Amino acid sequence: MIDSFRRPFFLVPTALFVGLMLTAGGCAEVMTNTRLDRENGIKLYNDGQYADAAGALREAVKHNPADLQTHYYLALSLDHLGAFDEAIQQYRTTLTLMENSLEGRESPEMRKRVIDQMADCVSKAHDTDPSTAMLHGGKTAEDQYIKAKIESKLGDADAALEAYRQSLLLDRDQPEVRRDYGLYLAQLGQTDAARTELKRAYAMNPKDEKTAAGLRKVGIIPGPSLKDESDMAHPLVPVGPLPELQIPTGGQDATADNQPATASPKD
Known about the structure:
Blueprint: H1 2-46, H2 50-63, H3 68-81, H4 84-99, H5 102-105, H6 108-124, H7 141-154, H8 157-170, H9 175-187, H10 191-204, H11 209-217, H12 251-257
Helix pairs in contact: 1-2, 1-3, 2-3, 3-4, 4-6, 6-7, 7-8, 8-9, 9-10, 9-11, 10-11
């Protein structure tokens, strides 16, 4: 009688354990298949098999919609296939995921690359309004930067320049945007304005090779002198005119001239 009551209490945990193991095994299998689909899709993309790549990457997205690399390569594949509207949506999704992931936040250059590729895609989709590529309806500095890149690709210089200015008004601390703005000004032949923006970009990030190359193109050699005066190391020599240095000209007369005057002994 006692055994008949004990048996269910032993069976329930066992059944639960087996169920959890099966669930965990199923999740692990799904994750493995998702990773394989993504890796296969990226390989197919690199091999130029864009249709097959898009198919594999779509499968990977179904199982792991938060993986930004999958969305990114799906966008590239669709872009190559001429499915521009779908590609733009995938580029937008990639940028959104980058905002919410450590991988994305630590890759500012990748983010700029995605924006560049999305701008190219919009320029190829002639019936697509540039505003459809914006993430927040044109309300942020990055939205204006995206618009600037798109308008420059479409050949509307006035709209591109205005978008660059609006982006920097919303957020002045954007060395990459200042760099691209300066490079675009140089491309338009506005050399003086280009120098100003490239100098500012260099002062904010002197390690950026693209900024340094841009400065050379407009006739400026990058170096510490381009930094703001407040950012430069202060010299050890005190500020103000230096005292004149008395340099002997040689001979006894010169030596005598440099000796302190003494009173002559009285007779």
